[in-house]
Design brief:
Blueprint lengths: L1 H14 L11 E2 L12 E4 L4 E3 L2 E3 L1 H12 L6 E5 L5 H13 L5 E3 L2
Parallel strand pairs: 1-6, 2-5, 5-6
Antiparallel strand pairs: 2-3, 3-4
Amino acid sequence: MIDVVFLLLVFFMLAARFGINPSQPIAAGAGGAATGDVPRLVGVAPAGLRLNGIPVSAPALVARLRKLTGNGRETVVLRPDEGVDVQRLMDVITMLRDAGFSDLALVE
Protein backbone atom coordinates (compact mmCIF):
# COMPACT_ATOMS: atom_id res chain seq x y z
CA MET A 1 0.00 0.00 0.00
CA ILE A 2 2.81 2.39 0.85
CA ASP A 3 4.54 1.56 -2.43
CA VAL A 4 1.43 2.61 -4.35
CA VAL A 5 1.24 5.90 -2.42
CA PHE A 6 4.89 6.64 -3.17
CA LEU A 7 4.44 5.80 -6.85
CA LEU A 8 1.44 8.13 -7.04
CA LEU A 9 3.41 10.85 -5.25
CA VAL A 10 6.31 10.52 -7.69
CA PHE A 11 3.93 10.46 -10.67
CA PHE A 12 2.14 13.65 -9.64
CA MET A 13 5.39 15.43 -8.81
CA LEU A 14 6.79 14.62 -12.24
CA ALA A 15 3.55 15.45 -14.06
CA ALA A 16 2.97 18.79 -12.32
CA ARG A 17 4.35 22.00 -13.75
CA PHE A 18 5.42 24.24 -10.89
CA GLY A 19 6.18 27.93 -11.27
CA ILE A 20 5.81 28.18 -15.04
CA ASN A 21 4.11 31.43 -15.95
CA PRO A 22 3.22 32.45 -19.50
CA SER A 23 5.34 35.37 -20.67
CA GLN A 24 5.34 37.94 -23.42
CA PRO A 25 8.77 39.23 -24.47
CA ILE A 26 8.66 43.00 -24.92
CA ALA A 27 11.37 45.61 -25.08
CA ALA A 28 11.53 48.61 -22.78
CA GLY A 29 11.49 51.79 -24.83
CA ALA A 30 14.70 53.78 -24.68
CA GLY A 31 14.36 57.49 -24.19
CA GLY A 32 14.98 59.42 -27.37
CA ALA A 33 15.51 56.35 -29.53
CA ALA A 34 14.10 56.62 -33.02
CA THR A 35 11.73 53.93 -34.20
CA GLY A 36 11.72 54.91 -37.88
CA ASP A 37 10.16 57.73 -39.85
CA VAL A 38 6.50 56.67 -39.39
CA PRO A 39 5.15 56.92 -35.82
CA ARG A 40 3.45 53.81 -34.47
CA LEU A 41 2.36 54.77 -30.96
CA VAL A 42 -0.52 52.75 -29.52
CA GLY A 43 -2.18 54.28 -26.47
CA VAL A 44 -3.90 51.70 -24.29
CA ALA A 45 -6.76 53.17 -22.24
CA PRO A 46 -9.02 51.25 -19.84
CA ALA A 47 -11.91 51.50 -22.31
CA GLY A 48 -10.31 52.00 -25.71
CA LEU A 49 -7.24 52.25 -27.94
CA ARG A 50 -5.53 55.11 -29.75
CA LEU A 51 -3.16 55.01 -32.69
CA ASN A 52 -0.95 58.11 -32.78
CA GLY A 53 -3.52 59.91 -30.61
CA ILE A 54 -6.58 59.02 -32.71
CA PRO A 55 -9.22 56.74 -31.09
CA VAL A 56 -9.56 53.44 -32.94
CA SER A 57 -11.24 50.05 -32.43
CA ALA A 58 -9.19 46.86 -32.04
CA PRO A 59 -9.80 45.49 -35.58
CA ALA A 60 -9.17 48.91 -37.10
CA LEU A 61 -5.96 49.22 -35.06
CA VAL A 62 -4.55 46.06 -36.62
CA ALA A 63 -5.56 47.16 -40.13
CA ARG A 64 -4.05 50.64 -39.72
CA LEU A 65 -0.85 49.28 -38.21
CA ARG A 66 -0.49 46.94 -41.18
CA LYS A 67 -0.65 49.97 -43.49
CA LEU A 68 1.96 51.82 -41.41
CA THR A 69 4.40 48.93 -41.01
CA GLY A 70 4.06 46.98 -44.23
CA ASN A 71 5.62 43.68 -43.16
CA GLY A 72 5.01 43.96 -39.39
CA ARG A 73 8.72 43.96 -38.52
CA GLU A 74 8.94 47.61 -37.42
CA THR A 75 8.69 48.52 -33.75
CA VAL A 76 5.22 49.28 -32.38
CA VAL A 77 5.37 51.40 -29.22
CA LEU A 78 2.75 50.74 -26.52
CA ARG A 79 1.94 53.37 -23.91
CA PRO A 80 -0.62 52.42 -21.24
CA ASP A 81 -2.68 55.24 -19.73
CA GLU A 82 -2.94 55.70 -16.01
CA GLY A 83 -5.42 53.24 -14.53
CA VAL A 84 -4.92 50.52 -17.15
CA ASP A 85 -4.60 47.14 -15.48
CA VAL A 86 -1.99 44.60 -16.52
CA GLN A 87 -4.58 42.21 -17.97
CA ARG A 88 -5.84 44.87 -20.39
CA LEU A 89 -2.27 45.58 -21.52
CA MET A 90 -1.55 41.86 -21.95
CA ASP A 91 -4.74 41.45 -24.01
CA VAL A 92 -3.54 44.19 -26.40
CA ILE A 93 -0.04 42.69 -26.58
CA THR A 94 -1.50 39.25 -27.33
CA MET A 95 -3.82 40.70 -29.99
CA LEU A 96 -0.89 42.45 -31.71
CA ARG A 97 1.34 39.37 -31.53
CA ASP A 98 -1.45 37.20 -32.97
CA ALA A 99 -1.78 39.72 -35.80
CA GLY A 100 1.92 39.26 -36.63
CA PHE A 101 3.54 42.26 -34.92
CA SER A 102 6.62 40.79 -33.29
CA ASP A 103 8.58 43.89 -32.25
CA LEU A 104 6.74 45.63 -29.40
CA ALA A 105 8.16 48.22 -27.01
CA LEU A 106 6.56 49.42 -23.81
CA VAL A 107 7.02 53.01 -22.63
CA GLU A 108 5.79 54.78 -19.56
